[in-house]
Amino acid sequence: MACTEVYSISSPKMEYVEGRCFSFINSSTSLKLWPMIRRTNSPIRRKRKLGVSCSLPNTLSPLGSEEDASVVPSSHSLEDEFSHVTKFKMSDFKIRNRVSIDLGGRGDEIVFEAMVNDSHSPLYKTRVVLRQLISARAKRRGRRAIEVLKRLARRKLMYHSYSMQVHGYICSSMIDENSSFTLVLGHHGSSSLRHWLQRSDWLPTLEATLSLDQESVRRVGDDTIGGPAISRQLRLIRILMRDLLIGVNYVHSHGLAHTELRLENLHISPVDKHIKVGILGNAADFNEADTVDGTSYDNMDRRRMMIAFDMRCVGFIMAKMVLRELMDPTTFAKFKAFLTKGNDSSCLREFLLHDVKRNSSAGNFGIQILDRNWGAGWHLLSLLLAPKPLDRISCLNALRHPFLCGPKWRVNPSIEVIRWSLGSTTVRIAEEYIYGQQQRSRLAHFIELMEMLNPYPKPKHWLGSFPGKWRLLYCTGRHIGLTLRQPSVRVLIGEVYLTISKASTPKTTFSAASHISFTVMAGGDWPHDKSGVGGKLQVNTYFRLRAGRRLYLKEETDTSKFPSATPDAQASAVKRLSSKKWRKAIPVNEFPSSLSVAKLVSTETEVTMSLDKPLSGNIEVAQKALQEVRTQIPPEMFDLSKIVCGTYLDSRLLVLRSVNGSALVLTRCTNDS
User: Fold this and answer.
1) N or C: which end of the chain has fewer CB within 10 A?
2) Within 13 Å, how many C-alpha atoms sit on residue 624's CB side?
């Protein structure tokens, strides 16, 4: 039947549909469409004519082409280019009357689920997904997905395991821009990874889908199943992340960057239990076809930048899998804005603890998972989301990272991972706020180890990293609180910060300001009622950086009750570094007699104190409150001239030593923290 009928449909969501994708009754009042999914945010427009053709594809309503039509390739050349896939007809499929909402694509795509009903096809009775591409840009994406398939399909095992299958296409004319173009894709489950993570029972459901057993967990270096919820979640994240990284590395190894790695583009196949990386419609080549001089260098730089972009997307996927709060768009926008502002990704824990987790109702499972194995999860996340693209980790190195390796796999950590583990352990112990003799000895032990592994021993390396806002975490000196004393004025110390800023001249001079917030509590019910008059204490001075060395005496006669660097701590540090586990990374046989440090020479200090309101109009009460603040805080934070050197500095931690040998451990925070 060669007939053409045109219907006027007032639909803001449909611009172009091929007649074969729906059936109709020859009536002016009846039009039956097959169920479809298409997302669009376009406003309601005026009526458009929808061309419905029974047999003549040229009668379809034209679309504005975005490409230059001056060069028109022949139909045979394009079909030869797509010879590695199958060209189907719409009659080869039986369209299903429903589509999963999670298969919905872009605004210029229409999605169908279908069954192959051609008995001569090798896909007979196979469930597939049809993506009808409407706009010229969408058609370019579809053709690009078929082009890159020629590279990926060379390794059939990897292709079938980690990539979404592209079986072929449906196209009435390869040279007519107005003709329809439909991709025929494999059906790898009706739900994307985002859909799984949004379920309230996502953990047991995903475990059942993946059919976790002894064999499956052995793939990630584990030998157990079940257990506490945190262990189960960590095991599942390792399985998913390793599958994702293998799939992304498979794409990178063929000279391609995915550029669209999102939770919506990842599907978990219930058949082979692997993550399928979405179609490569926007895949970019590492090497551009250019013959100018210096192309090899430019292409290498282009390759690194594209891999870094994909790894950043992998970092966002990992963050959403671990930290369920980031599934909320508003929270994720804050998280992404923190990184976009140029903040160091190693400070993510400080930011999330103070800004995100404070108002979270999802518990702290994600924080505990990232804190495990000496903070290995935070280290991997910081490498995936590093602000500088060239600092981001590759897929192969990420697969070797301790966070993604189970307890049965022996991993030789790098010196960078060892430094991170020591710092994370120190932070975790200090956050317990149980400062008994055992905890104090362990903290002194880890601080000594950190100082021996200081990555920046020379002052010139401190010029860029030293400035910033640092929060006081722990002091190896005295700790005096309110519990065992009866002061006349009770003061509750809040946060203590040390802000380092560059001075104008010379470049080795820095201004330092100590900010101490406190509350003067009135009344005898202070253990239960912490309200009172707020106050702030600020100490200002200037530091000049000089090269110096910290000497370790063989015989110490320290009479203080809590020495910061005791011979026991030094002996313990040497014993740890000389063990078989650490010897390959750090060949240390005995404690050194001296270490290079950044010497800090201070000038005069200025102290100011302010209160939110007067303390009963009595100057004596204010003096006693100031004395109580000085009693509780480390003396080095009140008198900055007592700080004589910096012994450790990295992107997130700072260790300063005072004139009496006590150490101040500070963690970097940002303006968003």
Assistant:
1) N
2) 15
